[in-house]
Amino acid sequence: MGRLSLYLAILSLGACFNGNFQQAYLLSILNQPYLEVHEEMGRLSLYLAILSLGACFNGNFQQAYLLSILNQPYLEVHEFINESTIYRTGEPIDPLYLDMLWSIINVMNPISGIVGQLLAYLICDRIGRRWTAIVSCIIAIPGLLISMLSRYFFPYYEFLIVGRFLWGTANGVAIVVQTVWIVESAPTDQRGKVNSWQEVIATSGNLLTQAVGVPLATATLWPFMFAVPLGVNIICLIIFVLMYESPQYLLMYRHNREGAAKAIGAYHGTSNEIEIQKQVQKCEEDGQKKQEAVKNAKEKQPNGMEVMFMPWRANDPTSVVVRYGAWVGIMVKIAYVFTGARVIRSFNTFIYHDLGSWSKSFAQWGSLANTIVRLPLSVIPIFIIEHVGRRPMLIVSQVVSIITLTITMISIFIGPAAKIGTLLGVSLLLFATSLGIGSISRFYSAELVPKNMLLRTVTVLSLIESSTKIALDFGFYPLAAVTRGYSFLIFIIPSIAFLILMVLYCPETKKRPVNAILNQMAAKLKVDVTFKV
């Protein structure tokens, strides 16, 4: 009697599974749509992922490759220019003229970038974000082909300058349209994630340049380093042909509500019609505000350039706040330029070898090892940026940059006995900027201004950044060759000033809509204006 029979055990289990198990499963399955909605909102859509990767490879990857491509074979290119001069004149090139010419070749990047950025500003609203990106790829192809064949145009080394100019122009277009297209297409809670990829992809471009440059840094093979960005450019061109246009552009300039809804569904990764229409409505309201400003005959509203550069005209409360946000974003971008990270990446083999007293072979492999370490480090911001926030990462990385620049300068003063300090100083500087300001400065300004100001702000930001880079790229190499360690003061002194400005003026933007950030800045400025959240 005390024993449970087999039949009774089976009956009890069956009844419980039929009752309690089914009840629990029913309750959990009814809760599943709620969970799916929230998972969907936090999940990156395939279209947005492909767009972000394509745009970043067309912009940041090409920019990093462009900046670093002549870093490894710089002595071989010097010899190519010298051989060309001897063939044409019968005499070797003057060393001072060669230094000046080498600076011109490097400064051609930001000069051509300015041309591309102005071109992007002129065509982006006329032909759309998608077609502007396609145009950038089309311009890059002949530039890369000319650069790759420059050795075969001997003794006319000027073809290398022409090819780099076309490539740099294409990259200037790509950098502007990349930020605008991604920010206009991404949901608010995905902005940090998709934009943090920029530093990862830029680092991969730098790494690939170093990896390809070590074996190809010979007198005959160095032109083939241009084959890699040519292949990447063709892949990006195919991606852009297959992508949707920016939903914001479709509504504001093409009045295509149906097309915008399809683009939002694809980029936001949702088929929920209510959510799609809600996002369409938000885009439409932005577009209507812009159209109303143009149509309002009684009270003309200031345009973007007046807001940014003519405070005596654009002195209304809204313009004051928007101008503040735009210039804070530009300040952060310029601060990154003055950390010296980009210039040092372009000349790190020279710094290791000529200034740090390492052998040429060690300098080349050291540059490669540095970039290999930076690649996984640059992935970290993707996972932490929406938790830690922009402001702490900006400030901490800026402090570390100042310290590492100082270590590098002192080590160069000491000489060969402190060459490990030069190696560590440069390496830690590049690591710190990859983890902080290098990643965030690429998109921070786009989070501080309304979308209808985005193209103008990004263009002005890129123009100012390129102008600053012209001075630094042109001046650093001859300055460092003459003054050695003192040349790092052009980075250290401005970086200290920018650190103070960041502490005082940079707001936190993580997971916040632009209008909420504008309201915070309005309160800080004590301006009587409120933006609808």
Automatic annotation (TrEMBL):
Pfam assignment, any one: Sugar_tr
Chain ranges passing through the membrane: 100-124, 131-154, 221-244, 320-344, 364-385, 392-414, 420-441, 484-505
GO CC terms: membrane
Major localization class: membrane
SUPFAM superfamilies (alphabetical): MFS general substrate transporter
Domain Major facilitator superfamily (MFS) profile: 52-510
Gene3D superfamilies membership: MFS general substrate transporter like domains
UniProt keyword annotation of Signal present: no
Annotated InterPro entries: GLUT, MFS_dom, MFS_sugar_transport-like, MFS_trans_sf
Keywords linked to the UniProt accession: Membrane, Transmembrane, Transmembrane helix
Highest taxon of source: Eukaryota
Membrane topology: Multi-pass membrane protein
Keyword Hydrolase on entry: no
UniProt GO molecular function: hexose transmembrane transporter activity
Subcellular location as annotated: Membrane
Name assigned to this protein: Solute carrier family 2, facilitated glucose transporter member 1
Organism of provenance: Toxocara canis (Canine roundworm)
